[in-house]
Amino acid sequence: MRANPSTGRSLGAATVVGALPLAVLLQAAPDASAQPYPAKSMHLVVGVPPGGAADFTARVISQQVQDALGQSMLVDNRPGAGGTLASETVARASADGYTLLLSSSSTHGVAPALYRKLGWDAQKDFTHVALINTIPGVMAVHQAVPTMAESGHPGLEGGLWYGVSGPARLDPAVVEVLAREVVKAASSADTRERFASVGAFSTPLGPREYTAFIARELAKWGEVIRASGARID
Were 127 and a residue from 65, 160, 170, 201 both cysteine, which residue would form a disulfide, CB within 3.0 to 4.6 Å? Predict the structure, then answer.
């Protein structure tokens, strides 16, 4: 019994026609990685409870950044262990620019030298985007850590500082967007005035400068804490 050629052609055509909508849908489906950044809400993780200088800094900057980029930047407070838990959360997050950290003198200055066991490296596991501000004065990090003068380093400057960092290997294009807007926000007259109201100074630095700044802070606090013998398990 011979197959009907016309039937075969009809079935073949039907198969092609039936497959077209799926192919079209697959081609039309949006690729999130190809969309301009940011394509959705960003989260700025803060390692302290609401209130205080860190939370204030995060909220001032996040508001201006989200206004500029057209996507929400949500402040996500995750307190505990001097900000080290929040830092670990971001270090392990996807390097897509949507989970960021309010890095600080505590998380990326003192903690790496003070804590014996951390689940992250302050330099290798992060992309440092921008410094925001500094607050001169005595830095209270832990009773066991001496002041600069007490440790025999009166010439070294203490104080608090805050910036924005993300997971390691952030796309340079994403870093460029974030750094531009964070530096712009920190440089504005309104931000400077608001920071001044709590004794802070806008000291914006871009990615390269902020990364170098953190390296110096790690070296400084490492020296102080080693001299003091203070460590936390």
Answer: 170
**How open is the CA angle 226-229-233, to the nearest 5 degrees?**
100
User: Is the separation of the CB atoms in 160 and 135 below 8 Å?
Assistant: yes
Q: Which pLDDT tens digit goes with each residue over 207-221?
A: 999 999 999 999 999
Q: How far is CA 92 from CA 95, 100, 116, 167, in A?
A: 9, 11, 19, 7
208-36-34 Cα angle (round to 5): 105
Asked if 55 contacts 22 with a C-beta cutoff of 8 angstroms, the reply is no
Q: Which CATH number fits domain 40-228: 3.30.360.10, 3.40.190.150, 3.40.1010.10, 3.40.50.410?
A: 3.40.190.150
Sign of CA dihedral 170, 163, 120, 72: negative
Output the six-digit token pair for 230. Answer: 């203070």
> Beta strand 42-46 with 201-205: parallel, antiparallel or unpaired?
unpaired
Mean pLDDT for the stretch of residues 184-205:
96
Question: For residues 108 and 121, what is the distance between their CA atoms, to the nearest angstrom?
Answer: 9
Cis peptide before 112 (omega within 30 of 0): no
Q: How many CB atoms lie within 10 A of CB 193?
A: 10
- Identify the pLDDT of residue 33: 55
Backbone dihedral angles phi then psi of residue 51, each to the nearest 5 degrees: 95, 155
pTM, two decimals, is 0.80
